[in-house]
Amino acid sequence: MEYAEVTFTAYLSAAVISTLLTITYLYQFWHQQRGSAFAVAATINTFHLAAIALSFSNHHLTTNWLLFLECLHYNVWVLAIALSLRKHSKQQHFPRSLQILFGIGWPLTALIFVFALVNNKTIFALTPWFALSLAVISLVSVEQLYRYAASNDRQIKLLCMNLGAIFIYDIYLYTHGLIFQGIDPLLWQSRAAVAIATCLFMALGGLVPLQQSQRTANFNISRPIAFYTTSLIGVGLLITSLSLGGYYVRLYGGNWGTVIYSFVLVAAVMIIAMVFVSSSLRSRLSVLINKHLFRHKYDYRSEWLRIINYLAQPAEASEVNQRAFFAVASTTKAPGGAIWLLKQGFYEPVYQVNLPRVVDLQEEPADSLFCQAFLDLEWVYFPDSGDNEALSQNNHLLPYWARNFPNLWLIFPLIVGEELVGFMALTKPVDDTALTWEDLDLLKTIGRQIASYLKRHHQADQLAEGKQFDTYNKLVAFIIHDLNNLIAQQALMVKNAEKHKDNPAFVEDAIKTISNSVDRMNNLLKKLRRDESDLVKCLSMTEVVEVAVSECRRNNPQLTSSIEKGKYTLNADQVRLVMTITNFIKNALEATPTGGRVHVTLAYNNNRAVITIEDNGSGMDWDFIHNRLFKPFETTKSGKGMGIGVYLSREYISELGGSLNVMSTVGEGTTITISLPLNKMD
């Protein structure tokens, strides 16, 4: 009695949920969102479930009528599926496969209807065969609809999934009945639960407004679900193997059976624990699942062709870094970031975009552990990796500036061969920022391509500079040749002047003038010689700065200085060192308008001389400082210079083992800081 009550309640509940499904389809039909076939099919399904419920009460129908409704509900679902398929595929006739199915299903249902009218029970023995055949036909129809129509309609795909679940369960139910010569009561009772769940999901799918405008309906298993499902399947297979092994050991193990089985069980538990505890094994399993159970995230062929075409387009020297950045940003959808390239033993920021003005991008030493991880491991830093140990294991190497970088997403290397050309930092994109193995592999591949692109342009710039220097050297050779001729002429004039002793005033003035010219030209020749080791002397740092300031102070009242006294020395060429300092002072004076201020400071700190040149002139922008200021033959002084003064000054500071830092703001001024190593004091 209890079984009948539970079954009655279950099927009655299924009929109520099916009524809700019918109302949903009627609502869609009323608003012309779906045809009437599904509403009819849902109605017949409701009557079918209600009839089964009544069969467990005092108002039950005859078995033939139940069998007729059983077959009828299969056929109406197939009819609704066929009409929907014809609508989505734009065919005027049913597919041939469905025509064959109709040729079997409807005559069979009509035959059962006739037997139900005459109340003939001879058909009852064939019930499982009839129902199984119709369930198979229905499942094939669902497969046809899923293949041809579900890709453009999410509700159709949801419908196919639920109808497929119903028909698969029915196939199992009737196959089990044929094997065991009778329908299992518990399976028949569970059929109501399947009906409740599937009808509920179909009704909710119809009530939720799903967009159907040219959007592909993709129901994909998430990677975490796939990972844990795969793990559970593996554990399940292991447990099944243990069960079979235990059964075998129990039959044939004899006295050693319990010992052997206990050993195998403990070993299996240890294997399971090792899989779940070991992060490396779980990481490898995750990568294996992502690579073999999911489609690739990127179309690598199109990505590769797009980047090649983008980088192959002609670009000005000032556009190279910008083009390299946006080639990466177009793939990663990163809104901003910066590029660092190797210069003078440091990785200097050469390009930035969409970053706040307050961001202070700093240099990174080439020998830092942060950069070494790029080269040794081709590592991609992901600062916001959370609890992901695989991605965050080297985050402790991140420099201080990276920790203050707003919305920093990742930093990846730019490598050519075995050389780290630089690295690139990207800010977080608007969409999902989770990284997979595909993202990392693609970033490394793009990084190598971008590095090759930047290095090629850098080598082209070096070649152009070399040609310019070659031209400059030829010009200098001609100048030296002319100067030698001039010196010879002037020397001859000095000798010939001895003949004009009768005019002492003329002779004395000529000798002084010519002698001074000879001295100046000889000094110039000394500066143009390659070997200048004889010019390097031990110099007083204080005197060098005082000489440089005094040379620039003539008719420049805005120049002030604060020079710390001390007996600090360094080994250098006095002329070149004074010229280096005066070059920066003169540039500051030229950039400072009348009434402005240029101040030179000399201080000593940790056995280093620190020279600071500050002005409140026009200033320079970030791009000019990093891409034009130290570029040879680049000058803003039209017709007044060759554009190599600042370049030569920086090179000489580097030769002395010093460093140069430039800080400037447009409209506010510039601060030049020169740091030079001093000789150790006795």
From TrEMBL:
- EC number annotated for this UniProt entry: 2.7.13.3
Record field: catalytic activity: ATP + protein L-histidine = ADP + protein N-phospho-L-histidine
The UniProt transmembrane annotation reads 6-26, 38-59, 65-85, 97-117, 123-146, 158-180, 192-210, 225-248, 260-281
Q: Where does the record place the Histidine kinase domain?
A: 478-680
- Which Pfam families does UniProt cross-reference here? GAF_2 (PF13185), HATPase_c (PF02518)
GO molecular function terms attached to this record: kinase activity
Under the heading Gene3D superfamilies, the entry gives: 3.30.450.40, Histidine kinase-like ATPase, C-terminal domain
CDD domains tied to this protein? HATPase (cd00075), HisKA (cd00082)
UniProt keyword annotations, A-Z: Kinase, Membrane, Phosphoprotein, Transferase, Transmembrane, Transmembrane helix
InterPro entries (UniProt xref): GAF, GAF-like_dom_sf, HATPase_C_sf, HATPase_dom, His_kinase_dom, HisK_dim/P_dom, Sig_transdc_His_kin-like_C, XrtA/PrsK
List the NCBIfam families hit by this protein, alphabetically: PEP_his_kin (TIGR02916)
- The protein here is known as histidine kinase
Query: Which species does the entry assign this protein to?
Result: Cellvibrio zantedeschiae
